[in-house]
Amino acid sequence: MGFNEMQMTRFHNNLKSCCLEKKFPAHRKFNMDETVISTYNNNISPNRTPNVITPKGKKTVCKISSAERDQTITAICCMNATGVFVPPTLILPRKRMNPLLYKDASNGTLSLISDTGYMHSHLLIDWQKHFVKHAKPSAEDLVLLVVDNHTSNC
């Protein structure tokens, strides 16, 4: 479903009536979006080894690299209207999880994998559990979560 004026008007009317009815405080209004990051670096020629920076005195330098020249990673970010973030989610294009790939990720980062590196409906359920864990919604303390209408979010 694409962007058009009628859909946007309906969305804003629904959002307004929901906010008026439930009276969500700013810290209970969340927005989630996903972005795709390409690992392709066109500044490095295929015949040239990139420079590597390591701690002084380090004898061995290891690198996990992909056979693919261009892969995608999906980052899912969510924050509330007061600027508080739910820890991010990263989806890597892999068949098996490798914990070393997330070793230096921010505390609380949800690590997921998919064949393509993109979000799909099963991973969305994992992300929703992650969101509930951090936003802590309840019957007495509801949250509003706004997401786009991308097919992976349905």
From TrEMBL:
The record's section on Pfam families has: DDE_1
Name the InterPro entries for this protein.
DDE_SF_endonuclease_dom
- Residue ranges constituting the DDE-1 domain according to the UniProt record: 71-152
One annotated GO molecular function: nucleic acid binding
Q: Which domain of life is it from?
A: Eukaryota
The protein's name? DDE-1 domain-containing protein
The protein's organism comes out as Araneus ventricosus (Orbweaver spider)
